[in-house]
Structure formats: structure tokens, C-alpha cells
Design a protein that fits this description.
With 157 residues, the protein is an alpha+beta fold. It has a single domain, classed as Arc Repressor Mutant, subunit A (Orthogonal Bundle), CATH 1.10.10.10. The strands form three sheets. Strands 5-4-7 form a three-stranded mixed sheet, with no helix packed on it. It has a two-stranded antiparallel ribbon with strand order 1-2. A two-stranded antiparallel ribbon has the order 3-6. The chain is built from five helices and seven strands. A hairpin with a 5-residue loop joins strand 1 and strand 2. The protein is globular and about 45 Å long. It is 28% helix and 17% strand. The structure holds zinc ion (ZN) (2 copies). The site of one zinc ion has 7 residues, from loops.
Length: 157
């Protein structure tokens, strides 16, 4: 039987544990690419810089609009997927079906941070703190990541 929440008395379903990785936000774009063993292309430097300045998660259309470099869709997506693979950014799947990306990797092994999805403007924001959902996994199930989506109305709407 699946138990949606912690079974012990007084356990809250969502525990705020720690802040999202800070290194990525403080290190220079050049350093980050170097540390991840990635070539420092103009587009990648521009992408990281843009993610650092972005106030909310970025969809393809946001990136396309913000980038100075003229880049085709497949090149952009290829770079996003490389960034995601090395943990520079993480993808968020909200109800729109359009993946949005934000700086920082998701902590692994069943932990993640929550995302706020505005029902009005469809903007996605990363929330500080880590969420830990306490599920009782049936035998043989190995959870890899937890995506918590908080729906509501953002401050701009
Ligand atoms: Zn909004
Ligand atoms: Zn996030």
C-alpha cells in the first residue's frame, strides 16, 4: 500500500532542508564551463550569464528572445541538454508541456526543490529549500527524483 505522507506522528510531508547549491550562482561563467570540462563557446557563456540573471525558469522562447547570438533550435536544445547532464541547469516539467530550465542542479536521491507555477502567466519559479516527500516505496521501486509543483498566482499577476 502506498502511503502518501510520513507515517510517524508529527512528520510533515515537506521538509525544508537546505538551500539550492550556491556555487553555481557565485562562480564565473568561464570557471563553471571549465570545471564541467565544457568548451567555452560564446553561446554557452551567454546562456549561463542569462540563467544567472533570470528571475524565473526559462522556456525555449524566453531564451531565444534573450540571446544575442543567433542560434537555431537544435543547437540551443543540444546545449541545454549538455548543461542539464553536467548539472549546470535543471529542467522543469509543468502542466504546459513546455520544459523550462533554471540554473543549478537538482539534489539527487529523492530530494528536490519545489517549483511555483503561476496559473495566470505560466511563469515557473524555483523555490528555496529542499522538499523531501516521505513515501513508502513498494518493494523494488527506486525513486530517482521528486518534483514538487506549487500552483498559484505569482506576485506579478
Ligand atoms: Zn503570474
Ligand atoms: Zn528549480
Amino acid at each position: 500500500m502506498l502511503l502518501p505522507f510520513g507515517t510517524g506522528g508529527g512528520n510533515s510531508a515537506i521538509k525544508m532542508l537546505e538551500k539550492i547549491t550556491v556555487d553555481i550562482f557565485n562562480d564565473s561563467s568561464q570557471n563553471l564551463l571549465e570545471k564541467k570540462g565544457l568548451k567555452k563557446t560564446k553561446l554557452r557563456l551567454e546562456l549561463i550569464q542569462h540563467f544567472k540573471e533570470a528571475k524565473h525558469a526559462q522556456a525555449y522562447s524566453d531564451l531565444k528572445q534573450a540571446l544575442v547570438s543567433d542560434v537555431d533550435k537544435s543547437t540551443l536544445y543540444r546545449n541545454l541538454s549538455i548543461f542539464e547532464e553536467v548539472g549546470l541547469i535543471h529542467g522543469i516539467n509543468d502542466h504546459t508541456g513546455v520544459t523550462k530550465y533554471a540554473l543549478g542542479s537538482e539534489p539527487s536521491s529523492g530530494h528536490g526543490h519545489a517549483h511555483f507555477v503561476c496559473e495566470c502567466c505560466e511563469t515557473v519559479y524555483c523555490m528555496n529549500g529542499t522538499t523531501e516527500l516521505q513515501f513508502e516505496m513498494p518493494h523494488g521501486f527506486k525513486p530517482k527524483n521528486v518534483q514538487t509543483i506549487i500552483k498559484g498566482i505569482c506576485a506579478n499577476c
